[in-house]
Amino acid sequence: MPSLEGSTATSQSLERGLAILSSFHSDRPLIGVSELARELVLSRSTAHRYVATLAKLGYLQQDPDSKRYRLGPKVLDLGFSAINSMDLREVSAPHLRQLSDETGCTVNLAILDGTDVVYIERCRTARPGQREIDLNLHVGARLPAYCTALGKAILAFVPEDRLDVLIEQIDFAPRGPNTLTDPVAFREELGRIRASGIAVNNEELAYGLRSIAAPIRAHSGEVLAALNLAVHRTMLSKDELIARFGPCVTQTANDISLSMGHRLAPA
Fold this sequence. Notes:
- By secondary structure, the chain is α+β, with helices and mostly antiparallel strands.
- The chain has helices at residues 12-22, 33-39, 44-56, 73-84, 87-103, 149-155, 160-169, 183-196, 238-264, and strands at 60-62, 69-71, 106-113, 116-123, 142-144, 199-202, 209-217, 223-232.
- It is 44% helix and 18% strand.
- A six-stranded antiparallel beta sheet has the order 5-4-3-8-7-6. Strands 1-2 form a two-stranded antiparallel sheet.
- Strand 3 (106-113) and strand 4 (116-123) form a beta hairpin.
């Protein structure tokens, strides 16, 4: 970690504390003090002091068996406070509920964070067959953007220079039977999405899961998020999914974009 000593614009202690919290993720929920010290180039005693402070404040919890640490409930409070403060979520909620009610399908809203999508709203349905594709997702859940309709619907409209950086960072690992693992093929897919305005996940994330997504735009035209509608493969083929739900998904995304434009337009 670069030294911040002598800087009046930033706090080294705050940066180190946030770096420790950022080290935890779903693939590595438990981390030891020695690991953190090594990765953040800190002495073990310094790392322990930061960890102990974060634990005292509720941002970390120690696992009694392994003595390693996990994120604490205070981090969840911050995350949900951030999500709940989003105008986008408030504006989108009634539109998502209407789409779910009209189609009988689960509908999701997500934003891009790095190379992941983060779910900020879900309207679940009790329709038979939907439980099999829920994947234990919840508000705040993360998934790789490259193998989701939500992620592709956003990435397709990211400026080219930023997209180049993101694609370099993506680990194109196979997740489902049809995952795109070739960066060139992935770029071609994004081109098709730009042309059609619709992204499809055809069992790229997991077996049996198909979904269709459309981007949500700000008044400026910038893509803010995406919404999707998910079905099980036994319900509809890929072509049937596009034909049946493409228009209503696109219309709902356009309605939310228009509402956001009205919300953000100057008085």
